[in-house]
Design brief:
The complex is a heterodimer of chains A (about 325) and B (about 280). Helix content of chain A is about 70%, strand content about 0%. Chain A is built from 17 helices and no strands. In chain A, helix 4 packs antiparallel against helix 5. By secondary structure, chain B is mostly helical. A two-stranded antiparallel sheet of chain B has the order 1-2. In chain B, helix 3 packs antiparallel against helix 4 and helix 3 packs parallel to helix 5. The chains are: A mainly alpha (about 325), B mainly alpha (about 280). Chains A and B meet through helix 3, helix 4, helix 13 and helix 15 of A and helix 1, helix 2, helix 8, helix 9 and helix 11 of B.
Chain lengths: ~325, ~280
């Protein structure tokens, strides 16, 4: 049994080899990238090949009959030429589609791995040309939103999110993806201290969750409906309470929500612990604040939490972070 | 095979008005798939022979009609085969939505419907394996995946990879560590996407710990942990707990404390140990 972790796919380098070249004046300009990637590239349908094939069979059989002549031969050669061109065009489109799928998959992996510089470069390359597949384009745009948020370009990220949530596009996105886009958008609003807009966005999210709950209650009963909860919405409410210094509400809402936060956020539950640490510190509860600080830094690097929540940086002098053990035996 | 599923009966409707949904066992699905695959292979061979024969006859006697008719018959049979594929594809969103009874109904219909397309039969089996995976029915997952692997061709990479990953997971869950290790070793030689790498890493760690290879499990621990952090919440919590056990058994006390702390921040001890009681040793304070 092998012991070393297997290498991550080297698909990252493949898209450059597939012919994606950087174009366009502004780096990660959301409006430009949305527009440039919008025109859908033509994929020739498969059905003409079928009729061409039938025509070839009938044509060749007619030629071998007694009535075959130059006209039938001309038709047959014409059909073969059209069929060959159709085949070549479809094959080229197939290669383009495969390259596009590989590029977008590589972009998603880079975002997951938090390799932001490479992800930004690849997103720029992918979205500065028309794309074949609508769903891949939306996936690439979603990654673009995450990259812009990471670079604190929240208003630019909002342009991308608003486009993904627009009527023109929303029908092509599933409800859970749409929900997470709305959560990301609202977090950006809170980061920019646009509390009124953030509150409106949170109300929309709450209505969406209630609508889903009602639908599940109709089809599967109240027990199934009670399981419909949004950890993203809980995190938003926690962040809003911390921003508005409603520390008691933040702390009171945290404990009952912890199970759903753990279940849905995974390692990102560190964000919730970081916000609770700020709230507990604000209430003057040092020991619980230290516990929350220690839990937050056990799950995520201190520098990452400080980047996501500038208010967290102020706690560094007061509390002790959890450090990972050094590599090797200890 | 037919049964009424009360879980999907709309609220308030009498039982005799509830939609009847089909279900199917893994053994029955495999039997049906084998039968259809054999029929499909025979049919395709007959059609090729018929097309060549009618083309030769047409060439000798100047008649295009026999070739044309043969082609139309072949095309018609392929069109009739599309329904089975559509039913198998319909099961995909149902499985994702947790509508297991409806998904099984679609897959039962698909596996019983006429189809000479090999890809459709394998798709039906694969979707049934996904369904059983979602239901945590590991014995069925193992049976179905073995059947898929036996039938796959060298170029059908997507079926082979997915089936082997599910098979490895089923074997780990069933406690069959040695066969699981063999599958994991085969998959480790391949170039995998990130998501597949994460699944394989989780399986590798657990198989190593279950086999008592604790030192191997904690080799390259920081790199392994970087991958564990990217996993889904449940898998990440479980892997932290498994690595905590491996760290304890190899005397890495600080790592054991760190990993068990993380595991308990990601999930409560009861959910971590209900299926894996051996993890309690590393998680109890």
């Amino acid at each position: 049994m092998t012991s070393a972790p297997p290498p991550v796919s080297p698909a990252v380098s493949a898209p450059r080899e597939a012919g994606f070249a950087p174009v366009g004046p502004a780096f990660l300009d959301p409006n430009a990238l949305i527009e440039l990637s919008a025109a859908q590239r033509f994929i020739p349908p498969a059905w003409p090949a079928l009729f061409l094939a039938m025509g070839l069979i009938m044509g060749s059989a007619a030629l071998t009959g007694s009535s075959g002549g130059p006209a039938e031969l001309f038709v047959l050669v014409g059909l073969m030429t059209i069929w060959s061109v159709h085949f070549a065009v479809r094959r080229a489109a197939g290669r383009g589609i495969a390259a596009e799928v590989q590029a977008v998959d590589a972009l998603e992996e880079l975002v997951m791995l938090r390799r932001w510089t490479e992800a930004a470069d690849l997103a720029q390359r992918i979205l500065t040309r028309p794309m074949y597949l609508r769903e891949r384009r939306l996936s690439a745009l979603r990654s673009l939103g995450a990259i812009l948020s990471r670079y604190h370009r929240f208003s630019d990220a909002r342009i991308v999110y608003d486009y993904l949530l627009s009527d023109e596009v929303a029908a092509q996105i599933d409800s859970s993806t749409s929900h997470s886009i709305r959560v990301s958008r609202a977090i950006g609003l809170l980061r920019e201290d646009r509390l009124v807009d953030a509150d409106k966005a949170m109300n929309d999210l709450r209505r969406e969750v209630n609508r889903t709950r009602d639908e599940v209650r109709r089809h599967r009963g109240p027990e199934a409906a009670a399981q419909i909860q949004s950890a993203g919405l809980v995190l938003l409410e926690l962040y809003r309470d911390v921003k508005t210094r409603h520390y008691e509400e933040a702390v009171a809402g945290f404990e009952p929500s912890l199970p759903i936060l753990r279940e849905q956020l995974g390692m990102r539950v560190a964000d919730a612990w970081a916000l609770v640490a700020i709230a507990r510190d604000g209430l003057g509860h040092s020991e619980p604040a230290q516990l929350a600080y220690s839990n937050a830094t056990a799950l995520a690097p201190l520098i990452e939490l400080q980047r996501r929540y500038p208010e967290f940086a102020a706690l560094a002098d007061k509390y002790t972070a959890t450090d990972a053990p050094k590599a090797g035996r200890s | 095979m037919s049964q009424i599923d009360p879980a999907v009966a709309p609220q308030g409707l009498p039982a005799n008005m509830a939609p009847k949904l089909l279900s199917i066992t893994a053994d029955r699905a495999i039997t049906l798939a084998r039968w259809w695959l054999r029929l499909g292979a025979v049919f395709n061979l007959l059609m090729i022979v018929a097309v060549i024969a009618t083309a030769v006859v047409g060439f000798r006697h100047g008649m295009s009609l026999p070739s044309f008719v043969t082609f139309i018959v072949w095309f018609g049979v392929l069109v009739m085969s599309v329904r089975a594929r559509r039913l198998a594809i319909d099961a995909v969103p149902l499985i994702a939505a947790g509508e297991f009874s409806l998904a099984e109904d679609r897959l039962s219909q698909s596996l019983q419907s006429f189809s000479v397309l090999r890809s459709t039969r394998l798709l039906g089996l694969q979707q049934l394996a996904f369904l059983r995976h979602s239901q945590a029915n590991w014995a069925d997952v193992a049976k179905l995946c073995r059947e898929l692997i036996d039938h796959q061709r060298p170029r059908e990479r997507s079926i082979d990879l997915t089936s082997r990953l599910m098979l490895a997971e089923a074997l780990v869950e069933l406690g069959e560590v040695a066969p699981a290790a063999r599958e994991i070793a085969v998959l480790s030689q391949r170039r995998l996407a990130l998501r597949e790498t994460l699944v394989l890493t989780a399986l590798r760690i657990e198989a190593q710990v279950r086999a008592g290879h604790f030192t191997a499990a904690v080799e390259h621990l920081p790199a392994t942990l970087a991958l564990v952090e990217l996993m889904s919440p449940g898998a990440s919590a479980r892997c932290h707990a498994v690595l905590a056990l491996a760290a304890k058994r190899t005397g890495l006390t600080q790592w054991q404390e760190y990993l068990s702390k993380r595991a308990l921040l990601l999930a409560d001890i009861d959910s971590l140990t209900c299926d894996r009681p051996f993890l309690r040793e590393a998680l109890d304070a």
